[in-house]
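[worker-b] picked up task from shared queue
[worker-b] task type: protein-ligand structure
[worker-b] ligand name resolved to S-adenosylmethionine; SMILES cross-checked against name lookup, match
[worker-b] sequence length check passed
[worker-b] input payload:
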Amino acid sequence: MILMISVCRKVLITSGVSLADVLGGDINVYDFDDIGVPEGADNKWRQESSEKWLEKLVNDGEDACLLGQIVLGEIMACPSFAKLDGISFCLLDVSDFERIQRLKKRNTYGADQNMLNWAAWLRMHHQNPAWGQHVIKDGAWDGLDFSVWDKEAHWPESVTIIDTTDLSISEVAKQVAQWIYSDNMPDSERSTMSSEELGLPIFYQEFPEYFDTPSDIYLTNDKNEVIESLLQKYAIKSVLDMACGTGAQVLYLAEKGYTVIGADFSPQLVKIARDKAKQQNISAWFTDGDMRELSISGFDAVITIDNAIGHLVKSDFELAIRNIVNNLNDGGLYIFDILNLDAMTDDVIKADSERMTDKRITADGTTIINIRSSTIDRDDGYLISENNFTFQKDGKEKKVKNKSILQIYTMDELRNILSNNGFQVLEQYKADAYTFAADDSGYSIITVAKKG
Ligand SMILES: C[S@@+](CC[C@H](N)C(=O)[O-])C[C@H]1O[C@@H](n2cnc3c(N)ncnc32)[C@H](O)[C@@H]1O
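[worker-b] inference finished, payload out:
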C-alpha cells in the first residue's frame, strides 16, 4: 500500500515532529524533495520526479508514505502507476492566512498570491479532477499519459482532506497517522482469533453490536467524571485511550475539549466508536491497535479503563507498559483501573457475579439474559467468569457460553511492575468498581503513574 500526502510546498511536518516517529517504523516515510530540487524546478520536473518516486516505491515493494509535491492527476498519469497494488491520497489543507504565516515563519520563497492560487487549484483538483486541467497539462512532461484519466475510471471516490489550520505540527502528524491506520490497514493484519481463544467477553468480537446495550450495571458517566477530574488535576490536554471499546471515555473527553485518540484491539468496536463520533459530531479519532504495540506517541496521558489490562497476561501487561512509555510525552501519565486481587474475597466474587447476572433488551428487540458465575485462582490472580447467555428474539432462542479470564493484581504488584518499567506511581487508591469513587471497601484499584 502506498500512501500519498499532498502538502502544498511542504509547510507541514517538516520540523519538530517526524511522521516517521509517529508511525513507529511500520511504514517507510519519504519527502518528495529528498531527490533534490534543482534551481527553477517546474511542472515538468515535478511530473518526471513523480514517476521516479513511483519507480522507487514499486521496486522497494514495501508500505510507504510519500509527503510533498503530490498532484493526484499527475501520479495517476505516470507509467508506473499501474504497477502499484494500492494507493491512498490525503490532502493537508490550511487557510490562506495561516498558509502565509507559516511560509513567512519558514522564511522561504512562496509567501505570495501565486502560492494561494496554487493551493486553491490543488484543493479543487483533489475534489474534482475535471477542474482546470490545463494547469498541469499545459507544457507537461511527455512521459505522462493523461489519457488514462478518461480510459479508466480509477479516480478515487474521495480524497481525505485534513484541515491543519488550527492544529499544531504534532496534532497534524497524529491525524495523518490516524488516517493511515484507520483507513488503510488491510483486514488481514487484524486479529482473527475468536473471543473464546483469547478468553475475552463475546461482546468484543463476536457480538460487538450488543456491547452498548443499555444496562444498569455500567455507571460509565460516574467513571468518566473521576477520570476527568484526574486529568484536570494534572493539567492534561491530550489523551490516548488504548482500550477505547466503543468510545465511552473518548467521546466524553473529546466533548470536554481534550485532544483524544481512541484505539482498541477489536476493529468492530472501533468502527462503532467512530460511527458514534460522526453521528454526534464529535471530533475524536480512532484506530485499531494492540496496546502492546500501537505506536502514535506525543500524548500527555494514556488511559485503559474498565479492567482493560486484565485481558493481558502479566508478561504482556509489561510489554504494554513499556509501549505506553513510548507513547507518552516526558512526564506524561498512565491512568488505569483493575480489580484488586486482595479485595476479591469469596463473598465479593459471589456478589459481583450476581450483579453481572442481568437481562437487557437491545435496540433491535433482542432480549439478552446472562447468568454469570465466577471463580478465582488466587495463586496466579486469574478471575474466571463463566457466562451463560441466552439471546431471545421473535420466539426463538439461542444459547451461547463464554468463559472470560481476567488477570487481576494487588496494589503492591502494580507498583512494582510500573516502577520496573519506567513509571513512578503518583496516586493509587481503592475504589468502587462501578463508579470509581474512592472507597476503602471497594474492590477496584485506580492508579495514576508518571513516566520517568
Ligand atoms: C471492558 S472493555 C472497556 C472499553 C472502554 N474503555 C469502556 O470503558 O467502555 C475492555 C477493552 O479492552 C480491549 N482490549 C483487550 N485487549 C486489548 C489489547 N491487547 N489492546 C487494546 N485493547 C484491548 C477490548 O477490545 C475492550 O474493548
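[worker-b] attaching auto-annotations
[worker-b] Residues 9-16, 184-194 have pLDDT under 50 and may be disordered.
[worker-b] releasing lock
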